[in-house]
Amino acid sequence: DDDDDEDETEELMRELERIKKERAAEAAKREKDSAETEERERDSSILQGNPLLDPTRLGAAQGSSSSFSVKRRWDDDVVFKNQAREPKKEARRFINDTVRNDFHRKFLYRYIK
User: Fold this and answer.
1) How large is the average pLDDT for residues 12-17?
2) What is the mean pLDDT of residues 41-54?
């Protein structure tokens, strides 16, 4: 009777160990699959973020390799840019009168309206 109980206990322990090993193997496989999926998603997001590395963008659809060039504005290589955007500065004038000079007029305009 004791031998049967011990045999059943040993068999149950072996069954328990087998189940634990199976679960550990399944968990390792799931973890490996999720890591591979994350790696693929990360790689694809990197490729899609850079138009020079992504072959599925415009260039592959048209079949031309010239679409990989960076698009530039027509005035990128112009030497003198944005000259008309800045307002013209008034020329400073010197008046030897503290009430009529430019500093006094600006002061009155800013602080005393």
Assistant:
1) 96
2) 78
Secondary structure (3-state) at 78: coil
The answer to whether 54 and 47 have CB atoms below 8 angstroms apart is: yes
d(CA 52, CA 92): 52
Q: Which of 52, 87, 55, 84 is nearest to 71 (CA)?
A: 52
Rg (CA), the chain: 39
Residue 56 confidence (pLDDT):
64
- Mean pLDDT within 55-64: 54
Contact predicate 30/38, CB 8 Å: no
Q: Are 48 and 54 in contact (CB under 8 A)?
A: yes
- pTM, 2 dp: 0.39
Q: Which two tokens stand for residue 78?
A: 């112009």
CA distance 48 to 103: 57
φ, ψ for residue 74 (rounded to 5)? -70, -20
Which residue from 29, 93, 21 is spatially nearest to 105, judged by alpha carbons? 93
